[in-house]
Design goal:
CATH topology of the largest domain: Aminopeptidase
Radius of gyration: 24 Å
Number of helices: 10
Strand order of the largest sheet: 1-2-6-3-7-15
Largest sheet: 6 strands, mixed
Order of helices and strands: HHHEEEEEHEHEEEHEEHEEHEHEEH
Helix content: 25-40%
Number of domains: 2
Bound molecules: zinc ion
Mean pLDDT: 96
């Protein structure tokens, strides 16, 4: 164990450099830029670490195009036997940088013990931790009984359908061959995520009637009617959601409540175009409702339908259409799963304390591992502070990276067995 930890500490600079190398590849999703370059960078490192590498491409998926190919990477290092097989996964797509950065989001800046960049904690440092957890076992000269796989996948930020879902559909991650999956998403070093809340994305369109803007009383304004709906949500729905609390240990604690976010809204004329005096006859908004296991999807949707119906019945000429965009049911790792106890034992050794078992506020690729691959023995554990994900000046502390890599290495050893 000391040898294993020393090997990881000695590899710190290498790990920082590799993370910075990945951060300089702007794998922004949408649209899914530079995936091939990033998959190949991960693949080269895996090959150098004695993995057999291949690049599963999501052929046939609509988002896999000539300009934005959906290329994943998987490395396999066989131990004495194929099973047990532990699969470490990280997504290498990142959300757009957004405003408010004080460093170059794609510069791979390392400063004051932190690696900065879009995707540093979510989750390119996690990919580094996965690669080097496996590599440390090799460098320490510990023969493995079972086998290790490390994958870098695409599109997690947009649902993971060409990424982990694709690997699961192709049987690359499946109950037939895979015994445990650890997704190295940022979990604040001392937490393990055993699932997540449900997701219901929906679009509401209000339609009115166009008329001259100088005589708005002759038309029906779709934006004003969307305003009515938003106002009802604010006054009635949001307080009701905030009052609901799940028994599932979601972290951070505010995410134990049901939530609703307005992702986007568009109505009437484009505001930066030439304006003509018209009553807006159409308005669309997209909503992100996170529901609790206790609420369930059917009741969640019914509540939205009831709110819209009430608005339509109270406001003359309010017409709306509701369209479901995405539904993800909550997932939960079974109690007593070996992957949880392996990580917990490793954390006690490395960090000197047990892991906090938590559920994630947001969904991640766990759902595909559970539902499509049929591998319930799956969790998220990795370096970085979850609250920094998708924020400006996102970073991962180097110390977090080193500690998490130790925990992962020890847990992998526990799951695959040595000798
Ligand atoms: Zn992530």
């Amino acid at each position: 164990m000391d040898r294993l930890f020393r090997v990881i500490e000695d590899a710190t600079d290498e790990m920082v450099d590799f993370t910075a190398e990945l951060l300089k590849i702007p794998t922004v999703n949408p649209p899914g830029d530079a995936y091939v370059a990033c998959a190949e960078a991960i693949g080269r490192r895996l090959a150098a670490c004695d993995f057999t590498v291949d690049y599963p491409v999501a052929e046939g998926r609509p988002e896999h195009t000539a300009t934005h190919p959906r290329m994943n990477v998987v490395g396999l290092r066989r131990g004495r036997t194929m099973r047990p097989l532990v699969h470490l996964n990280g997504h290498f797509d990142v959300v757009p940088a957004g405003d408010g950065w004080t460093v170059d989001p794609f510069g791979g800046v390392v400063r004051d013990g932190k690696i900065y960049g879009r995707g540093s904690c979510d989750m390119k440092a996690g990919i580094t931790a996965a690669v080097y957890a496996a590599e440390a076992i090799r460098r320490a000269g510990i023969p493995l009984a079972g086998s290790i796989e490390v994958s870098g996948t695409v599109d997690e930020e947009s649902g993971g359908f060409a990424g982990m879902a694709w690997l699961a559909q192709q049987g690359r991650v499946s109950a037939d061959r895979t015994d445990a999956v650890i997704i190295t998403e940022p979990t604040d070093t001392d937490r393990v995520y055993v699932g997540h809340r449900g997701v219901y994305w929906f679009e509401v369109t209000t339609s009115g009637r166009i008329a001259h803007g100088s005589m708005p009383f002759l038309g029906v304004n779709a934006i004003a009617h969307m305003g009515v709906i938003l106002d009802r949500m604010r006054r009635e729905l949001l307080p009701a959601l905030a009052a609901r609390t799940t028994a599932v240990p979601v972290q951070p604690p505010l995410a134990r409540h049901a939530t609703l976010n307005i992702n986007g809204i568009a109505g009437g004329q484009p505001v930066d175009g030439i304006q003509t005096p018209c009553v807006a006859d159409r308005c669309r908004a997209v909503f992100d409702r996170r529901f609790l296991a206790e609420e369930g999807f059917a009741a969640t949707r019914a509540e939205i339908v009831a709110l819209l119906e009430e608005a339509a019945q109270t406001v003359p000429e309010l017409a709306y259409e509701l369209r479901d965009l995405m539904v993800v049911h909550p997932v939960k790792t079974p109690d007593g799963a070996s992957v949880v106890s392996a990580l917990d034992g490793a954390a006690r050794t490395v960090l000197g304390r047990p892991l906090v078992v938590a559920a994630s506020p947001g969904t991640y690729d766990h759902k595909h591992v559970d539902r499509i691959a049929g591998v319930p023995n799956c969790v998220a554990y990795g370096p970085g502070i979850l609250a920094l994900a998708h924020q400006p000046d996102e970073y991962c502390a180097i110390d977090d990276l080193v500690q998490s890599t130790k925990v992962l290495a020890l847990a992998v050893l526990g799951l695959t067995g040595s000798g």
